[in-house]
Predict the structure of PhnD/SsuA/transferrin family substrate-binding protein.
Amino acid sequence: MKRRNFLSYFLLLIAGCASATSNSNSIYSNLDANVPDTLRFTVTDTQGLQQLQRDYGGLRTALEEVLEKKIEFVPFESYIAAAAALQSDQVDFVFTGPSEYVVMSARTNAVPIIGITRSNYYPVICVSANNKIKSVAQLKGKKIAMWKVGSTSGHLGPTKLLIDGGLNPKSDLEILLLGSKGLPALQKGEVDAWGGSSVKYEKFLKDEGLSESALPVIVKGSFFPNDLFVVSSKLDSSFVKEMGDRMMKNQDKLLQSLSSVEEGKFKGSKLVSANDVDYNQFRQVYKIVGQGSFVQ
């Protein structure tokens, strides 16, 4: 009798597990869509597979659990290459910054599904205490270091601060794209100013043991629009909606997976709905600096 009862309970357990699996899979099977088994995924501020795995391996694992899909990393050397890959159906799913998004949106009709906020993420322009510059207007005829072309915080953001301060970034001063060498160049007096993110500025001061008075900030910008998860326009809209719903419902798991990303840039973040009009400011900057073709 006991053996018979044990067998009955065992069969009920198997049936329950099978039912749970079936119900999970049916979430997608009920969609009127051709749902891919694998989503090809990239992050635009990374270069190479090794960096993708190091910084975003946790996110990939979390996405696989939340979306119940295999996530395959596809590395690219630039956001322009990632945009081309999205257009040519070599990638399905991209995590990207604001300036990169407007290029992707223009070239591929990329669909934004979820935004992710970043605390303490805004542009600054700082100078050396030795050069007596107090305002953006005083940078006319000077040299300013920035990060790289198209970078949200290291190019378009500080360029907008120059424009808002009354300068023409194409003719009124010289912009040098020095990457990680920009702040050291300012410290050595090789440039007159540096423009970039508040996060990189504060980290440099901390690493060098400097106070803000050594490299004073002459202007701060507004908070940047959110980073975005975007998908290919080739994916079925009902599947895309289901992806977004699942990500919002499981945002704690996704955000926890980003806690170790470089500079702690997603500390205090949250997932929010995506709004395309928030990115028009970067479309305007691209046009002013003569790169309007990127966003047309």
In short: Residues 123-220 form a domain with the D-Maltodextrin-Binding Protein; domain 2 fold (CATH 3.40.190.10).
